[in-house]
Hints:
The protein is an alpha+beta fold. The protein contains one helix and two strands. It has a domain of 35 residues. Strands 1-2 form a two-stranded antiparallel ribbon.
Amino acid sequence: MDNQTPLSTETLINELQSYGAxxxxxxxxxxxxxxxxxxxxxxxxxIDGMTVMVPV
Length: 56
């Protein structure tokens, strides 16, 4: 994907739900995981007026 082309809202949400997000501020919730077995955590993010759950 071209890094200069903005993603559509639908594509951004799909990418975030597929790959997750890494938290910059560890006090905002659980420490970000690198993957592997075990439970994951998620955060509610509001993107373009829609609230979506994104793994962290």
